[in-house]
Amino acid sequence: MKIGNRIKELRTRRGLTQEALALAFGVTPQTVSKWECEINFPDVSLLPELSVFFGVSIDSLFSLTRADKLERIDNRISEAGLLDDDEVGQIEEILKESVSDPGSKALALTLLAKLYNHQADACLKIASEYAAEAVEASDGSAESLKQFGRSNSSAVFGIKDSSHRKLIAYLREYLSRNPDSADACAMLIDNLVADARIKEAYLWTEHLLKIDGTYRALVYRYNIFALTGDDASALAAIALLEETYADSPDALISLADIYMKRAEYDKVIRGALKASDRYPSPKQTGPLLVAAHVSELLDRSQDAVSYYRDALKILKEDWGIVSGERVDDIRKEIKRLSSAD
Question: What is the pLDDT of residue 322?
Answer without folding.
Answer: 80
